[in-house]
Amino acid sequence: MSILCYPAAVVVAAVVILASSGTGVMGADEPAPPPPCSTVYDELQACIPYLSGRGDPSKECCGGVKAMQPYSKSKSSRSAICQCLKSMVSLVPGVDLSAASKLPKKCNVNVKLPELSLDIDCSKA
Prior knowledge:
By secondary structure, this protein is mainly α. It has a single domain, classed as Orthogonal Bundle (Hydrophobic Seed Protein), CATH 1.10.110. It is 49% helix and 0% strand. It has helices at 6-20, 37-44, 48-51, 59-68, 75-88, 97-106. The radius of gyration is 13 Å and the shape is globular. Mean pLDDT is 74; it is low at 21-26. InterPro entries: Bifun_inhib/LTP/seed_sf (IPR036312), Bifunc_inhib/LTP/seed_store (IPR016140), Plant_nsLTP (IPR000528). Belongs to the plant LTP family.
């Protein structure tokens, strides 16, 4: 797999994590630790065709979106994913951020989306 495929997955992760604002389902009191970018890439690489305007999100893509939802409980996780997005997304030509914004709804993940932009302040994620 090309490294250029990974940043689009980061876009998806950022959408899910930044948008979830604490709706994840992890252990009772302990939020999930921030995921490494490699986990994000593995879970969300199936979303790349959708983010590039090639059809609807696949079942695998939506499964990856749902798998990332537990990370939304932790501000440090949301911030880490946001930082990964900002440093990597510029490497992927043709990623449609408006498509990324629609992904949780298309995958039936009930989250409220923030304004998505490369200028987002990750410390407020």
